């Protein structure tokens, strides 16, 4: 980071740390050898404890996660009551949560959590076979929210969130998920995952009729326009905007957005994304609403002018802009 | 009691100096006439504040107290019964600390950061009208969420923030603008609307008047923008237990651990200059006469808060500010909760609105019967920064006295601001507005200097000038001055052949023989390397 001086430690302090690290490494290697030696035959409690210790030191060691699951299936679960099994799985859920705080992107830990969730037994009683499951799954949402608070762009966490919402017995309503994406976007709209999630949730809400599609799209354009003006360079915003426009069948909306983006371009004349989007939407107008356009030539000319500017400010992509210009000139369909 | 340096006063700057000198291996004697650490930066309990007010009002017979009486004048304190009064930490120098800057650097490099905690400033707002404040957008997220700014305003504000965060020296926008006022610069070069320009000038750059100049304001803004995100969204930290008083105490602890001697709560009856001598100046020593102590501590160097040296401060027309401390037991809100609360909206969406640690800025003319030429600030500290017991908050107001306001009493000038702030609390009924449990008004005058360093001759070796400094710069200025003084002292001591004694890193307090068999320690850094690597990165 700028302006942050490195803290200096004395020679003695660095030597001490080196010694500590050396000792830790020795201990780790001894433990790892021991566990691997036992893995094919030893299903005892003692071995189980050893895997716990080893996984705390190195949670990426997925062979040991497998071994642990083997022990659950072969020796720890059989002969145990549902409440005991639930207890064991709860402990492992706590363990993985602790590990995820330090290692939020390790596939092995996320996998083990899923496995635990999927093996929650029926219970606590014959009348309430889903009791354990319900309470565990509800906690899961809380866990993934904590992970997303720590890093809103962790795709492991977003995937896991979708898995939970799709699998849990009584998921919260889509509207509350919409509110969740709103929170994440407000916290930092440079977050493709959050916009992506939002698009999925909105689609569901429109399909079920819970949200009026027309009004909702209006609000979404409002939201994305705020983001656009705040940071015209943010890619996720423009991609979301393009999704909202969709196939461009609604001419009035296209015109409105074109005007708005043009105003932004006037304020920020060097914005590549503004220019590119204007070209994209003007092409849609040309292609889909030609019969209603007063002055098609003016539109074509403005596209070509924009593409010429884009070639200048974005030289690595100049061949792409050339190709688009060719397409417009020859009146081809948009690729 | 012979020292290499005697430090008088345990304010932040002096305490950093004492810690640096001690860690470098010099013998330091650190004295403060008050029975607490922190000097003019101290964090006081309610009773301590009462004692402080009383002692600064009385006629007195020591140089220090007389100087204090001139520095803090027109003191009026009223209070009802304040419950759990010992759990309050009221700062005499309410400050916000930028996350990137000399003080944080010193805190980390010296290890003093491990002694205490900090709270991130939650929110900065600008007072708009009774019961209404406007948030100050300082980041992309703030600008995005803001409901008051138009789209074009947002774009222009973001353009300005990007400009201010970058290398603007030599830019086109700044050409020829060196003597331009910041407000005009914002309006002309960035087409910012008046209210937006006000928010930037007074609540991001912390200008205190419309005549503040462009370049210093831009430089402050850049530093604060670069501080954002280091520890959280806000650029500023507030120290636990009343801020820099506690931090000063942390540096004193570091000094003590490295061998410095501490004497608090004894009046300093006189500071005696070295006897005139025709011989070498190398061995001349200053000495202190302390109340009720037979021994006279002596030292080649004295670094002192000027109040210990002389009671007369030049009465400068500038450099006075009016202060107010108030304790309340109703929270202040910067925003209202939304009118509807339904199933779709969770509690987190609303946001608390209640401020625990926040800053409220009053631009000029924002409060009737306030000042029309100066901006006032109000730092709110609550339980979260360990400054108060639960359910209570401390409000600290400060406003520079401009020429126009020069004849006003602090209470008369600041009371409208206190009342304006109280309109932001939810009072039980309109007829009984929130009443503070304690209010203390006073006038604070700049001292003649911030620190004076005395060596062999009657002329000071080095003087740290005293400047008008905005609240967000106080802490870093103290750290910078401490470092300047440190180098002056080290060079002077080296010239006189005084060698620092190395403290072995395995133990505290073990000192090797001075000069015997030791290579002379050349001091090349302000802070020596730390003695133990933290355990948190295992």
TrEMBL record, chain A:
Pfam families: PPTA. Its EC number is 2.5.1.60. PANTHER family: GERANYLGERANYL TRANSFERASE TYPE-2 SUBUNIT ALPHA (PTHR11129:SF2), PROTEIN FARNESYLTRANSFERASE ALPHA SUBUNIT/RAB GERANYLGERANYL TRANSFERASE ALPHA SUBUNIT (PTHR11129). PROSITE patterns: PFTA. Belongs to the protein prenyltransferase subunit alpha family. This is Geranylgeranyl transferase type-2 subunit alpha. Keywords: Prenyltransferase, Repeat, Transferase. It is an enzyme of class 2 (transferase). Catalyzes the transfer of a geranyl-geranyl moiety from geranyl-geranyl pyrophosphate to cysteines occuring in specific C-terminal amino acid sequences. It comes from the Eukaryota. It comes from Somion occarium. It catalyses: geranylgeranyl diphosphate + L-cysteinyl-[protein] = S-geranylgeranyl-L-cysteinyl-[protein] + diphosphate.
Automatic annotation (TrEMBL), chain B:
It comes from the Eukaryota. Belongs to the Rab GDI family. PANTHER family: CHM, RAB ESCORT PROTEIN 1, RAB GDP-DISSOCIATION INHIBITOR. This is Rab proteins geranylgeranyltransferase. Residues 498-538 are annotated as: Disordered. The lineage of its organism: Eukaryota, Fungi, Dikarya, Basidiomycota, Agaricomycotina. InterPro entries: FAD/NAD-bd_sf, GDP_dissociation_inhibitor. Signal peptide: none annotated. Residues 498-514 have a biased composition (Basic and acidic residues).
């Amino acid at each position: 980071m700028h302006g942050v001086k490195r803290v200096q430690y004395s020679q003695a302090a660095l030597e001490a740390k080196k010694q500590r690290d050396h000792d830790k490494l020795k201990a780790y290697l001894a433990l790892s050898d021991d566990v691997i030696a036992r893995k094919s035959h030893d299903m005892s409690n003692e071995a189980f404890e050893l895997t716990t210790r080893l996984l705390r030191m190195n949670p990426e060691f997925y062979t040991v996660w497998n071994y642990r699951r083997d022990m659950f299936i072969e020796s720890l679960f059989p002969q145990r009551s549902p409440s005991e099994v639930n207890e064991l799985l709860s402990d492992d859920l706590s363990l993985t949560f602790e590990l995820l705080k330090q290692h939020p992107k390790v596939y092995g830990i996320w996998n083990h959590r899923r496995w635990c969730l999927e093996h929650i037994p029926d219970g606590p009683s014959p009348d309430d076979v889903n009791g354990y499951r319900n309470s565990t799954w509800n906690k899961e949402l809380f866990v993934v929210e904590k992970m997303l608070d720590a890093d809103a762009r962790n795709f492991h966490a977003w995937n896991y969130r979708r898995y939970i919402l799709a699998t849990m017995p009584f998921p919260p309503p889509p509207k509350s998920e919409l509110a969740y994406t709103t929170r994440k976007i407000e916290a930092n709209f440079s977050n493709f995952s959050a916009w992506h999630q939002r698009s999925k949730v909105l689609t569901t809400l429109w399909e079920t009729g819970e949200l009026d599609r027309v009004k909702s799209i209006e609000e979404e354009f409002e939201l994305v326009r705020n983001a656009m003006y705040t940071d015209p360079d943010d890619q996720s915003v423009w991609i979301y905007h393009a999704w909202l426009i969709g196939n461009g069948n609604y001419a009035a909306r296209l015109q409105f957005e074109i005007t708005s983006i043009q105003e932004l371009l006037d304020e920020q004349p060097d914005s590549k994304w503004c220019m590119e989007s204007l070209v994209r939407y003007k092409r849609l107008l040309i292609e889909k609403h030609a019969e209603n356009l007063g002055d098609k030539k003016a539109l074509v000319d403005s596209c070509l002018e924009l593409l010429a500017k884009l070639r200048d400010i974005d030289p690595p992509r100049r061949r792409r802009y050339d190709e688009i210009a060719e397409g417009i000139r020859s009146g081809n369909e948009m690729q | 009691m012979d020292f290499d340096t005697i430090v008088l006063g345990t304010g932040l700057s002096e305490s950093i100096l004492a810690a640096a000198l001690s860690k470098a291996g010099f013998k330091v004697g650190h004295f403060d006439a008050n029975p607490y650490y922190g000097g003019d930066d101290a964090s006081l309990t309610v009773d301590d504040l009462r004692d402080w007010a009383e002692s600064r009002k009385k006629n007195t017979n020591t140089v220090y107290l007389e100087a204090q009486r001139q520095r803090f004048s027109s003191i009026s304190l009223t209070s009802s019964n304040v419950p759990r009064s010992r759990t309050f930490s009221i700062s005499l120098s309410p400050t916000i600390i930028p996350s990137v800057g000399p003080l944080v650097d010193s805190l980390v490099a010296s290890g003093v950061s491990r002694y205490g905690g900090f709270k991130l400033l939650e929110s900065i707002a600008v007072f708009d009208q009774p019961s209404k404040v406007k948030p100050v957008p300082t980041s992309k997220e703030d600008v995005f969420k803001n409901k008051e700014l138009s789209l074009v305003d947002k774009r222009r504000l973001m353009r300005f923030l990007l400009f201010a965060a970058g290398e603007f020296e030599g830019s086109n926008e700044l050409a020829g603008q060196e003597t331009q006022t910041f407000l005009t610069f914002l309006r002309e070069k960035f087409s910012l609307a008046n209210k937006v320009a006000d928010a930037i000038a007074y609540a991001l750059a912390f200008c205190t008047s419309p005549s503040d100049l462009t370049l210093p304001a831009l430089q402050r803004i850049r530093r604060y923008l670069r501080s954002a995100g280091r520890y959280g969204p806000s650029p500023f930290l507030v120290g636990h237990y009343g801020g820099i008083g506690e931090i000063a105490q942390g540096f004193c602890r570091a000094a003590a651990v490295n061998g410095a001697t501490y004497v608090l709560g004894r009046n300093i009856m006189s500071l005696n200059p070295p006897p005139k001598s025709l011989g070498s100046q190398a061995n001349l020593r200053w000495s202190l006469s302390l109340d009720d102590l037979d021994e006279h501590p002596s030292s080649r160097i004295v670094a002192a808060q000027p109040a210990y040296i002389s009671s007369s401060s030049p009465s400068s027309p500038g450099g006075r500010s009016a202060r107010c401390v108030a304790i309340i037991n109703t929270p202040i809100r910067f925003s209202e909760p939304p009118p509807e609360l339904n199933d779709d909206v969770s509690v987190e969406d609303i946001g608390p609105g209640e401020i625990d640690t926040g800053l409220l800025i009053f631009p000029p003319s924002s409060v009737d019967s306030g000042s029309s030429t100066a901006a006032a600030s109000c730092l709110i500290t609550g339980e979260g920064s360990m400054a108060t017991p639960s359910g209570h908050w401390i409000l600290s107001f400060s406003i520079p006295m401009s020429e126009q306001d020069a004849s006003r009493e602090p209470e008369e000038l600041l009371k409208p601001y206190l009342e304006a702030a109280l309109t932001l609390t939810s009072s039980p009924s309109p007829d009984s507005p929130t009443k503070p449990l304690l209010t203390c008004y006073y006038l604070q005058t700049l001292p003649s200097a911030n620190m004076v360093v005395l060596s062999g001759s009657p002329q000071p070796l080095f003087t740290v000038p005293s400047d008008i400094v905005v609240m967000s710069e106080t802490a870093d200025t103290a750290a910078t001055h401490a470092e300047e003084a440190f180098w002056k002292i080290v060079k002077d001591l080296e010239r006189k052949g005084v060698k620092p004694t190395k403290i072995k890193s395995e133990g505290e307090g073990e000192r090797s023989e001075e000069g015997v068999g030791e290579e002379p320690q050349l001091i090349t850094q302000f802070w020596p390397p730390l003695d133990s690597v933290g355990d948190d990165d295992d």
